[in-house]
Amino acid sequence: MKSPICEMLGIDFPLLAFSHCRDVVAAVSKAGGFGVFGATGHTPESIEVELAWIDAHCGGKPYGLDVLIPENLVTGGAKGLTSRGLAEKIPQGHRDFVDDLLSRNGVTPSPRNERPAGEPAKDSAPPFDPTNALELLEVAFRHPIKLIANALGVPPKAMLDMGKKHGVPVAALVGAKEHAIRQVEAGVDILVVQGGEAGGHCGEVSTLVLVPEVLNALKAIGAKTPVLAAGGIMNGRQMAGCMAMGAAGVWTGSVWLATTESETSEIFREKMVAATSRDTVRSKGRTGKPSRQLKSGWTQAWDGPDSPGALPMPYQTLISERALLAIEKSAATGNAAARDMVTYFVGQGVGLVDQVKSAGQVVQEFKEDFVAAYEDMTALFD
Amino acid sequence: MKSPICEMLGIDFPLLAFSHCRDVVAAVSKAGGFGVFGATGHTPESIEVELAWIDAHCGGKPYGLDVLIPENLVTGGAKGLTSRGLAEKIPQGHRDFVDDLLSRNGVTPSPRNERPAGEPAKDSAPPFDPTNALELLEVAFRHPIKLIANALGVPPKAMLDMGKKHGVPVAALVGAKEHAIRQVEAGVDILVVQGGEAGGHCGEVSTLVLVPEVLNALKAIGAKTPVLAAGGIMNGRQMAGCMAMGAAGVWTGSVWLATTESETSEIFREKMVAATSRDTVRSKGRTGKPSRQLKSGWTQAWDGPDSPGALPMPYQTLISERALLAIEKSAATGNAAARDMVTYFVGQGVGLVDQVKSAGQVVQEFKEDFVAAYEDMTALFD
């Protein structure tokens, strides 16, 4: 397929798949998409292990790496702090709120020294730490990565310089026209334009509106930065629709959470299949910034009248990841109240998931649906 | 163009345009789209005048009529009540809130006997009155209308029967999968599947997700009801995108508010051109149900900490329409505070409006952009 994204990334089908799971990344790239590994929570040591595994399993196909470096972080300047160090700063009222929520629902809190899901070491770097993220990138460039992405604001100059030095494009995620212009002016090579229906951190403007709005804004400043549409995209017909609007490809996330390879629990995947598009909520209760996730007893508690309110990033992540790990464990033993609280980042597209499939099959279906959409368009003019 | 909607409505290009302005309806139909006249606020007498005007100006092209009949209305059963009768039931606290808001901003309240915008007679039928809506339809069927639509829940059986009797398809607007199924089971001929980015009454799920979700649900029950995508659609590329996803056409609204023919004020059109997609809000402060409108001093007041809260439908409409009429008048005399409060129903697509054009030109550009989108898709496979 002829698209600037295909040329930049060395692929034939501009379907990018964000995942925290190395198995998904390798499977998508192998099947002809482009896997992007979410590195948040990793140390330089653990990322080396993950990328070596991907290299051995992706059939020599290209893949990328995604980091989360926020532009503003309350821990900014607090160098040398670890997750454990930060966790000690969480207010007692918030600890009590979580302890009470867990105990009322029959969930035993995780021991202090147990690592939350996705966090690789007992006393790792804190989440969203810029220094750690840049170290991860240094390690990553020892592998044949073809894209680096930042999903939380303008990438630091050091990241942009790294991309340039290695000839690897730098992508950045935006949820508003103004942010898109700022990213392009900073030197970003690819914009991931993500609508408010997306899972995880997101704005309020829908993909269908935001993508053309950003394309118009880029045109107005004479920028030719290719745009990947993101937010709500779960199949090849939606991908065709976004490319008809002018996107050079798509960036997807939620759809891979329902694959057999995914890091998600079986319980969460069952909840995905059962959910409609109205079963998600955009809430600060997971990371401290608005992020879309599956509605559950957990999200309701944080958004409810007794909530102490979300802590700023990264404290809310620290408190919620540990609790959600305990909730998942309890749910797995058959605790129905815990099962009700199980949640994860997921977009409104969860309403389009009707079964769990392999990642390779999802890529194949994207291709088939894309072609079917194009053929239907052609038939309109018969 | 080959689409079930084109066959049902006798048109070549499945672009439906909802408008409260007869000039827009006639201009769109004449240019090859399909105008749908929003009849809310009209009496049987005034609708006769409007439709006769459309007949004389649409060049013999087909058009339709849209009514708002909610499934649940707090005035249900209060037959014979007029707008004035209902207005007397508005709590004093709410009157005081509005009076104070207006006076603080230098706006003189409208005299009691002045009709609010869009309300045709001094003591007309109350808004959202089912009996009145059915009388309007009786009058409408003396004209060559080709579609009747209800934009607020399942149409009453009498409306569905009328459509059947006259051989005119009945459309209904839905914002959730479950509603779509209920509408199809009730016998609706066309579904307008409207995402949360839409202006006016809307749900929370985006167009990009809701359209395929409804199409999947229809397929699962073996229904072949054609779907019009709605919400955020302002140009032919988005229209092509929605049809690539499987929609049989599109239903549009906000884009016509920025046309020279529109009923909107010059001030509101200037605000549309200046707005980005983030300048709308989904609020109960206009009608009592969540509806998307341009953010302004008015919406901020109703959504703010001192708000008495929105009244249920139709009371909130009665109190807000009268005040907004006074606000528009004051803004037109140069009152900057009043200008700041000017608002109207509009979707996130307002961020795609960069100038005011004629309705006919908008239709023409939709066609050109649609073809351009298709050609770009074709070029992907070169």
UniProtKB/TrEMBL annotation, chains A, B:
Pfam families, per the entry: NMO (PF03060)
Q: Which InterPro entries match?
A: Aldolase_TIM (IPR013785), NMO (IPR004136)
Q: Which UniProt keywords apply?
A: Flavoprotein, FMN, Monooxygenase, Oxidoreductase
Composition-biased stretches (Basic and acidic residues)? 112-122
Gene Ontology molecular function, alphabetical: nitronate monooxygenase activity
Name the segments for region: Disordered. Answer: 101-129, 281-306
The molecule here is called Nitronate monooxygenase
What is the superkingdom listed in this entry's lineage? Bacteria
Q: Where are the transmembrane segments?
A: none
